[in-house]
Design goal:
The protein has five helices and six strands, in the order βββαααββαβα. The protein has one domain: Alpha-Beta Plaits (2-Layer Sandwich), CATH 3.30.70.1290. By secondary structure, it is α+β, with helices and mostly antiparallel strands. The strands form two sheets. A four-stranded antiparallel beta sheet has the order 4-5-3-6, sandwiched between helices. The chain has a two-stranded antiparallel sheet with strand order 1-2. Helix content is about 35%, strand content about 15%.
């Protein structure tokens, strides 16, 4: 049965926005908002490359910065431990675990060194709490699976509030086509850990 997508207009929340900041990234945090989130492994980007992007692209051009950083992510820097099926499965199972409880999971893709998710935040939960659940539990389980220790995820994450239905559809296409765009497979149906391949009941 098909996963149902729900478009939520950002204007609906214009009177009561909540902005939170951890580190240098601000986050729009509002129950009911549809959020496109990217979180990544601790070794996913060379610090020098990130610094260069920050120097070249001014802070007020946040969309351009994000685009440059995500293009760099797609080059698969770091150990790329999420490429291993047993590790990617831990992440995907964790996303399913909180679906319909803390958020509605609309689309996702587990890439070799980062994860894209599209969620509708449910009442009673903040983005911070949701992301803690996404990362803390999986880091512990993944380290156990791999017999390793230490940080697995970078502490911060990118988030972008979806504005309208057109933006929603573009975001879903971007997420599900990411493995093809990054040259990891030739067809989106070939990538195992994504919403394109996994048909779910709402």
């Amino acid at each position: 049965m098909m996963l149902m997508y729900k478009a939520v207009m950002r204007d609906k929340y214009a009177d009561s926005p909540v902005w939170r900041c951890r580190g240098y990234l601000p986050h729009f945090d509002q129950p009911g908002a549809v959020q496109f989130i990217t979180y990544r492994t601790a070794d996913s980007l060379p610090k020098e490359a990130v610094l260069k992007i920050h120097q070249q692209i001014p802070a007020h051009m946040s969309a351009e910065r994000r685009e440059a950083l995500e293009a760099l992510l797609d080059r698969c820097h770091g150990a790329c431990l999420l490429r291993r099926p047993e590790v990617a499965a831990v992440v995907q199972e964790n996303l399913f675990h909180f679906d319909a409880d803390r958020y509605r999971l609309l689309a996702w893709c587990v890439m070799p060194n980062h994860v894209h998710i599209l969620i509708e935040v449910l009442n009673g939960y903040t983005l911070d709490k949701i992301m803690h659940g996404c990362k803390h539990n999986t880091a512990t389980r993944i380290n156990r699976v791999l017999g390793r220790s230490g940080p697995f995820w970078l502490e911060d994450y990118f988030d972008r509030c979806v504005r309208d239905e057109e933006h929603l559809n573009r975001t879903i296409e971007y997420i599900e086509r990411n493995p093809v765009s990054a040259g990891l497979c030739s067809r989106i149906e070939e990538w195992e850990f994504s919403s394109k391949l996994c048909v779910r009941k709402d």
